[in-house]
Amino acid sequence: MENSQKLFQYTIELLKSMAIRHEYTNFDSGAIMLDVWYKNKFYVIQFDVDNCVGFSEINNDNIGFDTNPDEKFYDEVKYKNKLKSTFVSYCR
């Protein structure tokens, strides 16, 4: 899988290009937590130092967030497909 830092930059560029609200926090470990608000939904994307990307949707069924994401991606193509299916498909 591509370096998680590169995937983070890819994700930020995509969100900026679509004017989607987001904030991120860098941790001393090198991990990054990205919060995304879109269409009355809230997502948390984790970029771990082991080149894994975690993806969670926080909603009424999943109201608490912990360090275990809903989905983990070790393959960059699968992660990018998830990202696009979640955000890009809504922009039309």
Structural write-up:
The protein is of the alpha+beta class. The chain has one domain (4-91). It is built from 2 helices and 5 strands, in the order H-E-E-E-E-E-H. A 5-stranded antiparallel sheet has the order 1-2-3-4-5, covered by helices on one side. A hairpin with a 5-residue loop joins strand 3 (41-47) and strand 4. The radius of gyration is 12 Å and the shape is globular. 14% of the residues are buried.
Primary descriptors:
alpha+beta; 5 strands; globular; 2 helices; 92 residues; five-stranded antiparallel beta sheet; single chain
Helix-strand layout with pairing:
Elements: H1 4-17, E1 21-26, E2 32-38, E3 41-47, E4 53-58, E5 71-73, H2 76-87
Antiparallel strand pairs: 1-2, 2-3, 3-4, 4-5
Summarize it:
By secondary structure, the chain is an alpha+beta fold.
Largest sheet: 5 strands, antiparallel
Strand content: 25-35%
Overall 3D geometry?
globular
Supply the number of helical segments: 2
Could you give the distance between the termini? 29 Å
Secondary-structure element sequence?
A: HEEEEEH
Quantity of strands, as a count: 5
Q: Any idea what the radius of gyration is?
A: 12 Å
Arithmetic mean pLDDT: 88
Supply the number of structural domains.
Answer: 1
Structural class: alpha+beta
The portion of residues assigned to helices is 25-40%
Name the quaternary structure.
single chain
- What topology, given as strand order, has the largest sheet? 1-2-3-4-5
Poorly predicted runs: none
